[in-house]
Specification:
Helices cover 28% and strands 35% of the residues. The chain is an alpha+beta fold. The protein folds into two domains: 2-96, Double Stranded RNA Binding Domain, CATH 3.30.160; 108-177, SHC Adaptor Protein, CATH 3.30.505. The chain has a four-stranded mixed β-sheet with strand order 1-2-3-4. Strands 7-8-9-10 form a four-stranded mixed β-sheet, covered by helices on one side.
């Protein structure tokens, strides 16, 4: 696995990098071709908390986890445990879903562009996402792997753009835009 480690308001030292790489290398066993995968790690500091955000995009799905702790090394351990738990939890689902789907590409290319302007606009960040068509089951899998409250996707069943969101009761809701 390749690593893209960067810091936000913190300088990532060699010791920090090597610790993150050592811990992330344990996840290689979950991937068929770990050499083709790049893990994006963002280390942030806010007050006394150090936050580690890890995103691992693969060809067919994306996993993401974020953890905060006062101790950097504890935060890294927590985020790795969370990622492994997500993979183990969804292992059966993923293997069923992508078992014979070699010809299908579910590549999500997230291109982030931060826009900072001096005027009084309310938009402070913009993301451009290329959406691949998927069904509602795949969208539920993605929202769980990314650990987000909502997920926007091209719905192949309804032939529209849909927003899948997590309701307060733990179930999901869908908004279709036709």
């Amino acid at each position: 696995m390749k690593y893209n480690i960067r810091g936000d308001k913190i300088t990532v030292t060699g010791a920090m990098k090597s610790y993150i790489e050592e811990k992330l290398s344990k996840m290689d066993k979950y991937f068929e071709e770990p050499g083709d995968i790049t893990a994006n790690v963002l280390v942030k500091v806010k007050d006394l908390d150090q936050t580690i955000e890890v995103t691992v995009p693969t060809k067919k799905f994306t996993i993401r986890a974020e953890e905060s702790n006062e101790d950097f090394y504890a935060a890294v351990d927590l985020v790795i445990n969370k990622l492994e738990r997500q993979i183990r939890k969804n292992k059966d689902r993923l293997s069923r879903k992508y078992k014979n789907a070699e010809s299908l590409e579910f590549n999500f290319n997230y291109e982030e562009e931060e826009k900072e302007e001096e005027n009084t606009s309310k938009i402070v960040k913009r993301k451009n996402i290329s959406m691949k068509p998927m069904d509602e089951e795949e969208a539920i899998l993605q929202i769980e792997l990314l650990n987000h409250d909502f997920f926007v996707f091209k719905n192949i069943d309804e032939e529209c753009v849909s927003v899948l969101y997590l309701r307060k009761d733990g179930n999901y809701g869908i908004i279709n835009m036709k």
